[in-house]
Design a protein that fits this description.
It contains 1 helix and 26 strands. With 278 residues, the protein is mainly β. It has a single domain, classed as Jelly Rolls. The strands form 6 sheets. It has a 7-stranded antiparallel β-sheet with strand order 1-22-19-24-17-14-13, with no helix packed on it. Strands 2-3-4-11-6-9-12 form a 7-stranded antiparallel β-sheet, with no helix packed on it.
Length: 278
C-alpha cells in the first residue's frame, strides 16, 4: 500500500482581518489551487484580548461553506437565518452560505486563551446558489476515539470505526483533530484522488522522515491511498483535512467566491441594493 508523502511545506503568517483581528493565516490565495476544494484556513486567537475583541462584524458570504472549530474561549454568532448563540470550546459551526448569508462572529472575553480554526470550503457551480444552511455542533456531539497513543476528535468522516457528525452536503470532506502522545501513530486510508493537508498547531509531526512543526502546514502528494502521522518527539497536535477536488474556475471577491468575476460583481451589487438574501 503506497502512502502519501509531503509535496510542499508552507509557513503560516500573521494578518489583520475583520474589524482588526490579528490572526494566523494558514493558507489562502495564491496557494488555493494546491488545496482544492479548500479555500482558506485561519488560526485565530491570542492571550491578549486586544488582538481579537473587535471581532468580525456583519458581513456577507456566498458560494462557500465555513467551518469554525473552537479550541478554547468563545465566540458569539448571529446570522440572517435567525440563528444566534455562542460557540464554545470544543464546538463546531458548519455554515453553508450557498446563495447568500449575512452573519457576524464576535469573540467574547475569556479568562483563558482564545483559540479557534476557521476553514472555508468551496462549493461546486451547481450548488453555489443552493439554500443556506446552518448547523451548530456542541462539544458533546463530536466523538473522540483512541488508538496507539493517538486521540482523534472526528468532526467529519470516519476513523477507528467511529463516524463523525458533520455529514457533507455538497463536497465530500474529512476533518480530524489529532493529538499524538510520544510514540503515537495515526494511520488512515483515503481515496487516491482526494486533496489532503495537515496543519500542526502544537509540537511536531512526522510524515515519513519529513517533519511539520508548529504553525506549518503541508500539502500531501496525490499518489497513494493511505497516510501515516507520527509524533516527532513528545506530544503533538494537528488537524488533517481531506476532500474531493471540484476542479472548477475560482473567482474570489473577499467573502464571496464564485466561478466568474461577473458573478462576484453581481453578488456585491445585490448586497449593496438589499437583494442579497434570497
Amino acid at each position: 500500500m503506497k502512502t502519501r508523502k509531503i509535496k510542499e511545506l508552507f509557513e503560516s503568517h500573521t494578518v489583520l482581518e475583520g474589524a482588526g483581528v490579528r490572526l494566523n493565516r494558514v493558507f489562502a490565495q495564491p496557494e488555493v489551487p494546491k488545496f482544492d476544494p479548500f479555500l482558506l484556513l485561519d488560526d485565530f486567537g491570542s492571550d491578549n484580548p486586544d488582538d481579537y475583541m473587535k471581532g468580525f462584524p456583519w458581513h456577507p458570504h456566498r458560494g462557500i461553506e465555513t467551518v469554525t472549530y473552537m479550541k478554547s474561549g468563545k465566540v458569539e454568532h448571529q446570522d440572517s437565518l435567525g440563528n444566534k448563540g455562542v460557540i464554545r470550546a470544543g464546538d463546531v459551526q458548519w455554515m453553508t452560505a450557498g446563495s447568500g448569508i449575512v452573519h457576524q462572529e464576535m469573540p467574547q472575553p475569556t479568562e483563558t486563551t482564545l483559540k479557534g480554526l476557521q476553514l472555508w470550503i468551496n462549493l461546486p457551480k451547481e450548488n453555489k446558489m443552493s439554500q443556506p444552511r446552518y448547523r451548530g455542533l456542541e462539544k458533546k456531539d463530536i466523538p473522540e476515539t483512541n488508538k496507539e497513543n493517538c486521540s482523534v476528535k472526528i468532526i467529519a468522516g470516519e476513523w477507528n470505526g467511529v463516524q463523525g457528525p458533520a455529514q457533507h452536503l455538497h463536497v465530500d470532506v474529512r476533518y480530524f483533530d489529532i493529538a499524538l502522545a510520544e510514540g503515537g501513530v495515526f494511520f488512515y486510508s483515503i481515496p487516491k484522488h482526494f486533496t489532503v493537508f495537515v496543519y500542526v498547531y502544537e509540537g511536531s509531526v512526522l510524515i515519513g522522515n519529513d517533519a511539520i512543526v508548529d504553525s506549518q502546514y503541508a500539502a500531501l502528494t496525490n499518489e497513494g491511498n493511505s497516510l501515516e502521522l507520527r509524533s516527532k518527539e513528545g506530544r503533538a497536535q494537528c488537524i488533517l483535512v481531506a476532500g474531493e477536488p471540484i476542479g472548477e474556475p475560482i473567482a474570489w471577491g473577499g467573502p464571496i467566491v464564485m466561478n466568474t468575476d461577473a458573478e462576484v460583481q453581481q453578488a456585491f451589487w445585490e448586497f449593496q441594493n438589499n437583494e442579497f438574501i434570497k
